[in-house]
């Protein structure tokens, strides 16, 4: 048994330097070359089409916060500010901005939501009943 342990220790000592050299020479992949204007989603490790983050499927009583890409309970997270006339609430920065400054909210159809990162209207996650 003692001989086996010595041989095992010798094999480990010989293998460790070569394994360390490989790890140093080839770091982990943190991005990829995406085709056709797609962008790299580092959280999901996939290429995604252009147009901003994909909304999460949140449970009832929750809303998707695109700035943190998380589902939050209703009433939790950045709340719309009571902006003065001539200003609009920018949810990405949680500030009131003068009209015409920054990305302007679009008048999206009923059930659609404005994606400020891409400045487009996106379809609802769950289609409205009816």
Give a verbal description of the structure.
The protein is an alpha+beta fold and 130 residues long. Helix content is 18%, strand content 22%. The chain has one helix spanning 2-25; strands at 39-41, 46-48, 62-65, 70-73, 87-90, 95-98, 113-115, 120-122. The strands form four sheets. Strands 1-2 form a two-stranded antiparallel sheet. A hairpin with a 4-residue loop joins strand 1 (39-41) and strand 2 (46-48). The longest helix has 24 residues, at 2-25. The chain is elongated. The model has no long low-confidence stretch (mean pLDDT 73).
* Distance linking N and C termini: 75 Å
Order of helices and strands: HEEEEEEEE
**SSE-based structural type:** alpha+beta
DSSP strand content: 15-25%
* Share of residues in helices: 10-25%
Spans with pLDDT under 50 lasting ≥5 residues? none
Cα-atom Rg, whole angstroms?
Answer: 25 Å
* DSSP summary, beta strand count: 8
Strand order of the largest sheet: 1-2
Characterize the largest beta sheet: strand count, sense, and whether it forms a barrel.
Answer: 2 strands, antiparallel
Question: Quick check: average pLDDT?
Answer: 73
Overall outline: elongated
Query: How large is the count of helical segments?
Result: 1
